[in-house]
């Protein structure tokens, strides 16, 4: 009888310890804690995540609420905007109305029960009074960040079948900005303006693939290219989800870092870029981190909308499973 009680107590202790370790393991799945990295926020746009009109300043939309499918760090306000190094989040159109452009949280077109963020671009909505005839913009903003010098973010991207009209066009797509990172921003009246932009490109000729390019520019009186790279090996899939993982570290010619890794659904990860170069203005004596980020962006010339619109389709793409860490994942 005594032996049985001891065994039962050991069993209870084992179950308690096992339960405790399981809880730690769950957090590890979300945060993967290693030296120098920390999960700031994650969301798959599920549950109580809600797109609302932004209150204050001149931005257009905001996302509030929490994604209860994520175990930790899932609230758009208390976790993301409440982090000491993050400013505020918004979605910006700049101009136009909902008949021209729209961001919305909707059902995943490829998977029942999943929610995603859709960018829908039907007509140019920026610079309609300018000589060049207009551009279009929908972008997420993480603005007013403080001392954010090294970070990683992941997000899934889905180019709709409408993008095949871009591919089939004889015309080139010389630039489509998919994400942009500022250190310092052009509109904040700071010195040493600097940006890195991740772009999609398509060369002249029909049925050419859509590819990635990335470049850094510094602005004095004009924009000057600091470095630029194009990837000629990876073709973005159309009608298929892919995961983008971006790592950035503030630094100079030999210490700045930009890495893009892409994992198409069902395929192995592929490193698209691994750049060691300036990630701040080369002349900035006291760089202060990535103060303004556009991690999910759609910004390009009107022609890319019209090539799709002529076929009675709409340029649209989807985002899902956004997560942001401070530091680098190991």
How would you describe this structure to a colleague?
This protein has helices at residues 2-31, 76-81, 164-168, 303-309, and strands spanning 37-43, 50-53, 61-64, 88-92, 101-107, 115-121, 135-143, 150-159, 173-182, 193-202, 210-219, 223-230, 241-249, 257-264, 270-276, 292-294, 297-301, 315-327. With 330 residues, it is mostly beta strands. The protein has 2 domains: 1-31; 35-327, Jelly Rolls (Sandwich). The strands form 3 sheets. Strands 1, 5, 6, 8, 13, 14, 15 and 18 form an 8-stranded antiparallel beta sheet that branches. A hairpin with a 7-residue loop joins strand 5 (101-107) and strand 6. The longest helix is centred in the N-terminal third of the chain and has 30 residues, at 2-31. The radius of gyration is 22 Å and the shape is globular. Residues 1-34 have low confidence and may be disordered.
């Amino acid at each position: 009888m005594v032996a049985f009680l001891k065994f039962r107590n050991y069993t209870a202790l084992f179950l308690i310890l096992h339960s405790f370790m399981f809880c730690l393991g769950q957090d590890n799945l979300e945060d993967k804690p290693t030296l120098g990295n920390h999960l700031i926020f994650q969301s798959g746009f599920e549950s109580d995540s809600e797109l609302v009109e932004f209150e204050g300043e001149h931005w257009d939309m905001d996302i509030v609420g929490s994604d209860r499918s994520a175990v930790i760090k899932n609230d758009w306000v208390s976790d993301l905007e409440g982090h000491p190094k993050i400013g505020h989040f918004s979605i910006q159109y700049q101009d136009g109305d909902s008949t021209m452009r729209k961001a919305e949280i909707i059902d995943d077109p490829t998977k029942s029960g999943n929610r995603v963020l859709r960018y829908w671009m039907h007509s140019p909505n920026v610079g309609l009074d300018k000589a060049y005839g207009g551009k279009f913009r929908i972008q997420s903003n993480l603005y007013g960040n403080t001392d954010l010098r090294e970070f990683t973010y992941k997000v899934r991207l889905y180019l709709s079948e409408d993008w095949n009209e871009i591919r089939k066009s004889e015309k080139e797509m010389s630039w489509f900005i998919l994400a942009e990172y500022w250190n310092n921003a052009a509109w904040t009246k700071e010195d040493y303006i600097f940006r890195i932009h991740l772009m999609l490109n398509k060369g002249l000729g029909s049925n050419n693939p859509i590819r990635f390019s990335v470049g850094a520019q510094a602005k004095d009186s004009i924009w000057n290219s600091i470095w630029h790279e194009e990837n000629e090996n990876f073709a973005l899939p159309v009608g298929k989800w892919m995961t983008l993982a971006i790592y950035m570290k503030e630094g100079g010619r030999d210490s700045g870092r930009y890495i893009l890794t892409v994992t198409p659904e069902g395929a192995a990860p592929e490193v698209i870029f691994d750049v060691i170069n300036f990630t701040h203005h080369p002349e900035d004596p006291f760089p202060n981190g990535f103060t303004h980020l556009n991690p999910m962006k759609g910004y390009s010339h009107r022609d890319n909308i019209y090539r799709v619109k002529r076929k009675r389709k709409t340029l649209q793409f989807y985002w899902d499973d956004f997560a942001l860490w401070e530091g680098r994942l190991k």
